[in-house]
Write a structure and sequence with these properties.
5-stranded mixed beta barrel; 13 helices; alpha+beta
Length: 431
């Protein structure tokens, strides 16, 4: 009786007969030999059907197979250096589960809208599968880093009564008789958790009702948001660069085949090692003006500005000390220069934009109350947040990493929509 296996584990069964549940990714014939390109989710392997070595039934079953038909294929595993996986199967038996007719995604070129309409099937393509494997490894490495560095995973609420950053780009819903919003950040709640647990992080979906159509924006995306008690801005930056190094090098180590599938230049990722370069907002403005950009001090950076800055470096770069007026109310002013705050955005190389935003948080209750007034925020609504400063305030810092932008950068993708299984964009809620 054949051993049941998955393609990823065939290296353990060389010379043995195994059965693999799989789909027909592709097929070609050379007279009296048929080559079945099999996939089972864990990987790909070629099944070779030789007419003179199988029954007429097996041969005819192989001939009848169509793209994405599902089968149990039985055969002997052997080493094959010319194969990408290093192995091949000599087929001895085929059990057809389902013959597929008129599979809509063929090897020919399809437009993006067509592929997005069939996203539930497009996920089966080698490149899309590879992206999701890399995404999974990024998630594993993120959790590994925080677990190894003394952080506790805490889950903030998705339904909230207010905005974390005082913006209006929120999805509104009714919470029985009250107004509620889908979260755009769990940060404020993570600050509360940090006061209980020291070092914490959240990992969950966030929502921004921004009518953005750029290649960097999604409506629903996943955020990783650490908060750290007794941690200043400088220490936070060191943690961020070690964190990114760990994630990138984990992908390089564990997903080299998938990186090749998506066409990534792995050498560019191998060089992502801490420390990362830093540039102040002031110097960034001077640089941009010198490059011909018409941008005054006090204005936030857009995608072209971030790309121009990033092109000067082959690693992520920190832009630090932004003007207080363009940053969130909770960011701590620089004691030596109160018009700027102790914050940094980490800009990925190769034009992928901001992947991390972070800061030291205001810990002075009087200053925070002043910020509430300046930003016209309700003290009643934010009383619980004020309590964190009233009862045992400490210096603390945190940051947020956007998962999908990070996946896009590491994979070298043109658009963020391929980084998540079922993207939610401005005009897409299906499938």
């Amino acid at each position: 009786m054949a051993t049941k296996s998955v393609i990823r584990d065939v290296n353990k069964h060389v010379g043995e007969t195994v059965t693999i549940g799989s789909w027909i990714h592709n097929k070609r014939s050379s007279g009296k030999i048929q080559f079945l390109q099999l996939r089972d989710g864990s990987g790909y392997i070629q099944g070779v059907v030789v007419k003179s070595e199988v029954s007429e039934q097996v041969w005819n079953d192989a001939k009848s197979l169509t793209q994405e038909s599902s089968v149990y294929v039985t055969g002997v595993i052997r080493e094959e250096p010319r194969s990408q996986s290093g192995y091949e199967m000599t087929v001895t038996g085929i059990e057809i589960i389902h013959l597929t007719e008129n599979y809509p995604i063929t090897p020919k070129e399809h437009g993006v809208d067509f592929l997005m309409d069939h996203r539930h099937l497009w996920l089966r393509a080698p490149k899309q599968r590879a992206i999701l494997v890399i995404r999974s490894e990024i998630i594993r490495a993120i959790q590994e880093f925080f677990d190894q560095n003394g952080f506790t995973l805490v889950d903030p609420p998705i339904l909230t009564p207010t905005s974390a950053e005082g913006t209006t780009n929120l999805f509104h819903t009714k919470y029985f008789e009250e107004d509620a919003y889908l979260t755009q950040s769990g940060q404020l709640y993570m600050e509360a958790a940090a006061m209980a647990l020291g070092k914490v992080y959240s990992f969950g979906p966030t929502f921004r009702a921004e009518k953005s159509k750029t290649r960097r924006h999604l409506i629903e995306f996943w955020m990783i948001e650490p908060e750290m008690a007794f941690t200043d801005h400088e220490e936070s930056l060191r943690i961020q660069e070690r964190f990114i190094e760990h994630v990138v090098q984990s992908v390089v180590k564990n997903c080299r085949t998938e990186l090749e599938t998506v066409g990534r230049d792995v050498s560019k990722l191998e060089s992502i090692k801490a420390p990362f370069p830093r540039i102040t907002y002031d110097d960034a403005i001077k640089f941009l003006q010198g490059e011909g950009f018409d941008i005054p001090w006090g204005e936030d950076f857009g995608a072209p500005h971030e790309t121009a800055i990033a092109e000067k470096y082959d690693k992520p770069v920190f832009i630090t000390h932004y003007p207080a007026g363009i940053k969130a109310f909770y960011m701590k002013p620089d004691p030596n220069r109160p018009e700027v705050v102790l914050c940094a955005d980490m800009i990925a190389p190769e034009g992928y934009g901001e992947i991390i935003g972070g800061s030291q948080r205001i810990d002075d209750p009087q200053l925070l109350e002043q910020r509430f007034k300046e930003h016209d925020l309700s003290m009643e609504t934010y009383q619980w947040y004020m309590d964190l400063r009233t009862y045992g305030t400490v210096p603390h810092s945190g940051f947020g990493l956007g998962l999908e932008r990070t996946v896009a950068w590491i994979c070298g993708l043109d658009h963020v929509r391929e980084t998540i299984p079922f993207p939610r964009t401005l005009y897409r809620l299906y499938p």
